[in-house]
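[Discussion] Sanity-checking designs against the backbone

I'm trying to build intuition for which residues belong where. Below is a structure token string of 288 positions. I'd appreciate it if someone posts a full sequence so I can compare it with mine line by line.
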């Protein structure tokens, strides 16, 4: 989505800053600073050791739980991240940022209804956040609350009107409620999403393009390695979601697996692809 969280350092800052008050630790101490630097450098094991030290030194330091939760998330240890989110909320029970943190981790852990509940709380505490909360719409989709999901994406349109991804997720919710034809009739109008291959993805969902058009656009020109990886991630993610909505389960799984395992970055939409694949694999194992 266009309006998404920034990188690792930004995420740490976002969740550390609200807790630098007299109620908690005066600020990040040397151990927390070292843990944050280790995480930024990619040394997740050292970052966790340092964060554990910070928690042991001061069990009421909210910033330590924020950072340790972030480290667990980076290590894909989502239940451990949620445990630290819970400790954070015990210290700051009215913090919208803490509920946001836990809602994201609940989603990554596959706890979709719990994620929705936390995101609902975010909006209760900070109503102005409501139109911007596209993550809530995605959690509602996976929780099977398609009508509420569609409403969230329609609301997000008011603050982010040229986002193909928002239109697509709205389409997916409506298709689950009725049919692809109905979803296509009500597809949110998009006039210009500059990211490649978003407009080809939009044409596909609107019935005016093909899957080959999407792949051709993703591979066109001479993009650098990082840009090509990002293009192919979005191409395969949304081809997979389109095939799934169209009843082509095998093709959908192939695209989603490529998106999640080969092209996904370390961001929230990468998490969406990984969660989708894990959820699909679990359904197969359960015989559903």
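Best answer:
Here's mine. Compare freely.
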């Amino acid at each position: 989505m266009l309006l998404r969280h920034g990188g690792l350092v930004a995420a740490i800052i976002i969740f550390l800053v609200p807790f630098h008050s007299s109620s908690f630790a005066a600020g990040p101490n040397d151990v927390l600073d070292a843990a944050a630097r280790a995480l930024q450098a990619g040394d997740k094991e050292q970052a966790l050791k340092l964060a554990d030290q910070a928690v042991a030194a001061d069990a009421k330091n909210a910033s330590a739980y924020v950072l340790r939760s972030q480290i667990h998330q980076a290590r894909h240890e989502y239940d451990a991240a949620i445990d630290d989110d819970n400790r954070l909320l015990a210290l700051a029970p009215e913090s919208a940022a803490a509920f946001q943190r836990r809602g994201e981790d609940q989603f990554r852990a596959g706890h979709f209804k719990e994620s929705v509940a936390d995101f609902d709380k975010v909006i209760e505490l900070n109503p102005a956040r409501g139109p911007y909360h596209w993550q809530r719409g995605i959690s509602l989709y996976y929780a099977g609350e398609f009508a509420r999901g569609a409403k969230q994406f329609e609301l997000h349109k008011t603050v982010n009107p040229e986002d193909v991804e928002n239109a697509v997720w709205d389409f997916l919710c409506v298709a689950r409620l009725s049919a692809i034809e109905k979803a296509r009739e009500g597809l949110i109008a998009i006039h210009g999403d500059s990211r490649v291959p978003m407009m080809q993805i939009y044409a596909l969902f609107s019935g005016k393009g093909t899957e080959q058009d999407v792949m051709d656009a993703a591979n066109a020109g001479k993009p650098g390695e990082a840009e090509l990886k990002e293009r192919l991630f979005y191409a395969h993610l949304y081809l997979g979601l389109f095939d799934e909505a169209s009843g082509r389960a095998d093709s959908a799984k192939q695209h989603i697996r490529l998106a999640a395992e080969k092209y996904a970055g370390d961001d929230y939409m990468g998490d969406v692809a990984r969660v989708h694949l894990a959820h699909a694999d679990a359904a197969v194992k359960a015989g559903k």
